[in-house]
Amino acid sequence: MKLWKQLGTTNQIMIMLVVGVVVGLSVGEAVAPIKMVGDVFLRLIQMSVVLLVMGAVVEAVGSLSPKDLGKLGVKSLAWFMFSTVIAAAVGIIFSLLLNPGKGLTLDTQTSNAISVPDTTINDLVVDFFPTNVIKSMAEGNMIQVIIFAILFGIALSFIQKEQGNSKLLDLLKEFNKIIIQMVTFIMVLAPFGVFALITWVTGTIGVKVILPLGKFLLTFGLATVFFLVIWFIFVGLYVKVSPLLIFKRMKRILIVAFTTTSSAIALPVEMEDAELKLGISKRISKLVLPLGLALNSNGLATFLAVACITLSQVYGLPINLSTIISIVLLSTLATLGTVVVPGGGLVALAIVVPSMGIPVEGIALLAGIDWFSGMFRTLSNVAGDTTIALMIAKDENEIDRNILS
């Protein structure tokens, strides 16, 4: 037990990930009941995320002057859009080079029809704004929660400026500390939760589903890795720190993101390591990281781009310059506020695919491997959020260089 604790959470998760794959492939579908353990872990984390996000955003915004908030908000959005467009473009390039849709056919794999929401980009934008924030919290609608938290924080900022102090802000800071401590307790279970989830996925889904779409996963995986390599190099040059050092300090964040396939579940670890391992100030991390959770989805943009090209090739649809531009723009817009829990990629795909004139039935072709796609999506999403927070912290001179060295 003592040796296990000395390994640290990162190494524990990696060990249990490998063990889970071996057990799942060895035992097969009989291992399905173990999913309950993973589901309990995910729920324990998810029950805290809404409060964590709302509390962090209100505290961050409430502590800022309206002028500083506007500057940081615009800068964050600009970086989010820039990285998302680059990620989508990389997905397009790799799809055109590797042709993942060539040779794929729609057969029994698409027999399991999925529900396609009747949602347009306009509907998506309107849905950013809540009618009832309690309902938004209950449903885990992060973008609506964040919109409310920003407005609440702005009002608190004005009160703070008028009165010189706010008891509510002090109370919020204490509340946020308690939530973080609770999440820290829950993260002790992370290796076992990951083991259960990976064992279930490999045991029940296994190789039989992956093989027919191996080229799609290979294309998406290579595009993700390529994007992350060039992005880390860019961030390293911008911040004037070795990209390898940044990657090393983010290792635990990336492993949790990859194994849980949920940006929301990775957020508590992301916020902790951003401050303690990357030296990002609390002011920046508590504002930029929750915003990135809802507004920055590099991995999802890459996924949507690769998926659209793949399905276009499956159906023999023409791919020209206007098609490529449309895919990049739609992939970027559809990532805004998309569900940040496992399975959210299919929701965004169901928005983009009809807009591109691709038959919606093709979505079912990719539904069976959504968990595996989600691993790469979440990895890129979380990496983008954290590195953008790091760049903004550099701009604001709010990096502790004694930590990041």
Automatic annotation (TrEMBL):
<keyword id="KW-1133">Transmembrane helix</keyword>
<feature type="transmembrane region" description="Helical">
    <location>
        <begin position="179"/>
        <end position="201"/>
    </location>
</feature>
<keyword id="KW-1003">Cell membrane</keyword>
<feature type="transmembrane region" description="Helical">
    <location>
        <begin position="216"/>
        <end position="241"/>
    </location>
</feature>
<feature type="transmembrane region" description="Helical">
    <location>
        <begin position="347"/>
        <end position="369"/>
    </location>
</feature>
<feature type="transmembrane region" description="Helical">
    <location>
        <begin position="77"/>
        <end position="98"/>
    </location>
</feature>
<feature type="transmembrane region" description="Helical">
    <location>
        <begin position="321"/>
        <end position="341"/>
    </location>
</feature>
<dbReference type="GO" id="GO:0005886">
    <property type="term" value="C:plasma membrane"/>
</dbReference>
<keyword id="KW-0472">Membrane</keyword>
<feature type="transmembrane region" description="Helical">
    <location>
        <begin position="44"/>
        <end position="65"/>
    </location>
</feature>
<dbReference type="InterPro" id="IPR001991">
    <property type="entry name" value="Na-dicarboxylate_symporter"/>
</dbReference>
<dbReference type="GO" id="GO:0015293">
    <property type="term" value="F:symporter activity"/>
</dbReference>
<feature type="transmembrane region" description="Helical">
    <location>
        <begin position="289"/>
        <end position="309"/>
    </location>
</feature>
<feature type="transmembrane region" description="Helical">
    <location>
        <begin position="253"/>
        <end position="269"/>
    </location>
</feature>
<dbReference type="Pfam" id="PF00375">
    <property type="entry name" value="SDF"/>
</dbReference>
<feature type="transmembrane region" description="Helical">
    <location>
        <begin position="142"/>
        <end position="159"/>
    </location>
</feature>
<dbReference type="GO" id="GO:0006835">
    <property type="term" value="P:dicarboxylic acid transport"/>
</dbReference>
<feature type="transmembrane region" description="Helical">
    <location>
        <begin position="12"/>
        <end position="32"/>
    </location>
</feature>
<protein>
    <submittedName>
        <fullName>Dicarboxylate/amino acid:cation symporter</fullName>
    </submittedName>
</protein>
<keyword id="KW-0812">Transmembrane</keyword>
<keyword id="KW-0813">Transport</keyword>
<dbReference type="InterPro" id="IPR036458">
    <property type="entry name" value="Na:dicarbo_symporter_sf"/>
</dbReference>
